[in-house]
Amino acid sequence: MKKIKFLMIAMMAFTVCTMFTACGDDDNKVTPPNPDPDPVVTPPSNYDRYQQDVNAIVNAQKKNDKVILVVAFGSTWEQAYDTFEKVVEDYKASFSGWDVFLSFSSAICINQARAGENVEPRDFYDPEHFLTAIGLAGYKQIIVQSLQVIPGEEYRRVRDSYVKDFMNNRNGDFTDDYMKSIDRQVVVGTPLMAEESDAENLAKVLNAEADVKAAVGEGIVAFMGHGNPEGYDYYGGNIRYLQLEDALRAISNNYYVGTVDMAETYAEDVLAHIGGGKFDYQVGAMGYTANYGDKNNAKKAQLFVLMSIAGDHAHNDMADEEDPESWFSLFNKAGIETAAYETNFTEACWKNTAEIKANGYIPGLAERSAVRALWKKHTSDAIKKLGTDAAMSTPTTAPEE
């Protein structure tokens, strides 16, 4: 028994000595237990990061409980960015008590702007991120105003995807109480030429513009719109260009309207119309016929862009003198002395005045205050629909059957 007790005491003494020796070898540091492995941290996705950015923008600028989200297709041209800034400034001045934000519906334009395509990198965000931020900020009345020209593909995508997804709380970002609070408090403002009467009003406004009036008094004025590709049911979209041309030609036979993406209204077709050809076009279930009568013998023409901004289509498809397929080249090749840039425009938004003075200018529709007034009229009409059955409803308030 004494021997066993002696062995146990000896073992304990050896263990204690070993512990003190180990600690002393490490400058008296106490070695902690092995920590748990580092937790896996998943970085936020681009979508989440962008949402955080937009949330910060909206929260920093929120002054009211009412908001207007202007939605443009987008661009990667500095002139267009300056035009968009002018639109936002105009809206803020015209709609007191409303916060105003700008969104791009084109992912390509957003990505190229962020990458610095043509210009210094700039951040723009899509309507989904903005509407989420607007909802999270607790806005009580929301107008989504389209800056499109016709009620075509882009407008319908904004209305039928972005806004309806928001109203359906697709991502579950909002409480039922909030969704109930915005029932019939969200309205989508219509494009520039939503109705035939809008096309007629636009014709009057354009004809009253000093630079347009001067040009049509000297020869042909041809407007280049965008148009929608064929094969889609956008009746009420493409036909607006034809109705605008009818309204303009009722004022002067020197007016013509074409597009870059609507069959039978390309530059070659416009030149054929100038030559006096008959025009037949099928729009949805309806046929459209225009008779251009006698040949237009004018030897001079001015081209204008029929889009909200002067961007890639305006400067390349319409005005590029080095591109044999541009409107400028085709018109001149047809023997018509044609200009795409002008020096008679006084409302230029582009801040590069030296470039304007040196090379002339291509004004977008949204640079014309009288045309912006037509868009703002649609916004005012949308505001009047708030709280009525013409506004959008949320499923949380739909009556139970």
Give a written overview of the molecule:
By secondary structure, the chain is an alpha/beta fold. The protein has 15 helices and ten strands. It has a four-stranded parallel beta sheet, sandwiched between helices. The longest helix is centred in the N-terminal third of the chain and has 24 residues.
Topology readout:
Layout: H1 2-25, H2 46-61, E1 66-72, H3 78-94, E2 99-104, H4 107-115, H5 127-136, E3 141-146, H6 153-167, H7 176-181, E4 186-189, H8 196-208, H9 210-218, E5 220-225, H10 239-249, E6 255-259, H11 267-274, E7 278-283, E8 286-291, E9 300-305, H12 312-318, H13 327-333, E10 337-339, H14 353-359, H15 369-384
Parallel strand pairs: 1-2, 1-3, 3-4, 5-6, 5-9, 9-10
Antiparallel strand pairs: 7-8
Helix pairs in contact: 2-5, 5-6, 8-10
Which outline best applies?
A: globular
The secondary structure category is alpha/beta
Query: Mind summarizing the main beta sheet?
Result: 4 strands, parallel
**DSSP strand count:** 10
| Spatial separation of the terminal alpha carbons | 91 Å
Radius of gyration, whole Å: 31 Å
Helix content: 40-55%
Give helix and strand order, one letter per element, not per position. Answer: HHEHEHHEHHEHHEHEHEEEHHEHH
List low-pLDDT spans.
1-33
**Beta-strand level of the residues, as a percent range?**
5-15%
Any key phrases for this structure?
four-stranded parallel beta sheet, alpha/beta, globular, 44% helix, 15 helices, 401 residues
